[in-house]
Amino acid sequence: MHFLLVAILIAVLQGLCVAGFIAPSTLPAPSQMLVDLYRVLGTADIWPSIALSFGDILLSAALAIVGGFCAGVLLHRAPFLRRGVEPFLASYYAVPTFIFYPVLVVLLGAGRAPIIAISVALAIVAMMSATLTGLDRLPPVLRKTARILRLSPLQTALRVQLPAITPDLFTGMKLAFSYAFIGVIASEFILSGNGIGYAIAYAYNNFDNTTMYGLIVFIVIVASAVNAALDALDRRLQSRRQR
Amino acid sequence: MPPIVVLLAALALWQAVHMTSGSADVPAPALTVLRLWQMLGASRFWSDVGASCLAFIAALLISLAAGIGAGIVLGLHQPSEAAVAPLLSNFYAIPKVTLYPIVLGIFGLGMAPKVAFGVMHALVPITLLTARAIAQLRPVYLRAAKVMRLNLATTVRTIVLPAILPELLGAIRIGASLSLLGVLIGEMFAAKQGLGFAAMRAMGLGDTTAIAAIGLFLVLFAVAINTALLTIERKTRRGITAP
């Protein structure tokens, strides 16, 4: 159903381009973009950039997920700290954090470090909020059951609480991954010397439309595929909870 | 009380980072505030603020008109929502910055691509939040409209919109922060005016204090808007749920 809709949209766009309503200089036809994609992925020197970007995305997401989880658990345990932090959390995603990326570049140099730092900063709060939501929703009966079964605190955490909040944690992980993806590609695009985002910006500045449109299509396809896969998993986990 | 402690701790941390990193790299908090104060007296700063604000307001108004309109259509017609919503949420997960060259190709340089980019960030969440709020409306409201034989426009104006007012305010709040983000990212990549451009210009000069001051200004601006809208939103929610 959704594939059909996407197919119709692409077909309409193709039609408009072929009929000349959209000039190739404004937007090339989808078929042309696929040819560009094929050509770009055929060149050997793009693969190190792709590997670098995805390495940074995975690293940022991993750091944000682990850090966000720990921070969430800590805040849940420390009500004073939580009451102090919560008003700031409400405004966190309202602030364009990205404006501090240039500061990080000056601080950490123009390498991978500022990119990973800004991506973790974008992603970590989503994971932290998801962890807090999960822990808040934990029904008291689980803790009581664990006590009746005389589980140690560690056993309670690993065998009862962690499985119970898995759906919430997964939602947080999905968001953290998406923010890390956006953070890495956007920082590379705005200012860096490497990676897919940089390659797109470089191609834009050099009027290299083949590389530019090829890589844009590549990013759109990869981001959509990953998002669809994570969404499907997320929905399966959420439905398991309702049973 | 706890938020103030956290805020002071954050300031102390900032000061500590400043003192350990060497004065040139991380500007001291006091110096940043002083710099911002000086900037507020400069006409160049206000012309950048004006350019960003104009693009931000235009983007937000367009996103609200189109997003709430589309959200009403989707919310009242569930089959279209089921078909379109996954596509829209997928678009939300794409790093939209990679599409910016296409936006520049279509809209040229200047104000228009920034506004378009702000709309690209805010439109989808506003649409989805509006549609979901309508979908979760108590069915009796729409049945009442049917019984009273209200036409579509009257139903929307007198029943649907007042009933989803708190969610609508939430959508406006999220739309505001996202359109601001979109406008700023657009300015960071290709612009000759605006706060995003000013931050990039300061980075080119290695002037971290200026970037931090611009960042501080944007944080205060974004938090003020978010807090104001959040307060109104909570008040309306209480007003609706009260007996």
Radius of gyration of chain B: 22 Å
CATH architecture assignment of chain B: Orthogonal Bundle
> Which shape of chain A, going by the Cα principal axes?
globular
How far apart the termini of chain B lie comes to 32 Å
Instruction: Tell me which CATH architecture of chain A applies here.
Output: Orthogonal Bundle
**Percentage of residues assigned to helices of chain A:** over 70%
Task: Tell me about this structure.
- The complex is a heterodimer of chains A (243) and B (243).
- With 243 residues, chain A is mostly helical.
- Chain A has a single domain, classed as Orthogonal Bundle (MetI-like fold), CATH 1.10.3720.
- In chain A, 82% of the residues lie in helices and 0% in strands.
- Chain A has ten helices and no strands.
- The model of chain A has no long low-confidence stretch (mean pLDDT 87).
- Chain B has a single domain (48-241), classed as MetI-like (MetI-like fold, Orthogonal Bundle).
- The model of chain B has no long low-confidence stretch (mean pLDDT 87).
- Chain B has 243 residues and is an all-alpha fold.
- In chain B, 39% of the residues are buried.
- Helices cover 84% and strands 0% of the residues of chain B.
- In chain B, helix 3 (43-76) runs antiparallel to helix 4, helix 3 packs across helix 9 and helix 9 runs parallel beside helix 10 (195-204).
- Chain B has helices at residues 2-21, 29-40, 43-76, 78-93, 100-107, 111-135, 139-147, 152-163, 165-189, 195-204, 208-241.
- The interface between A and B is large, with 52 and 57 residues.
Explain briefly what this protein structure is.
The complex is a heterodimer of chains A (243) and B (243). Chain A is 82% helix and 0% strand.
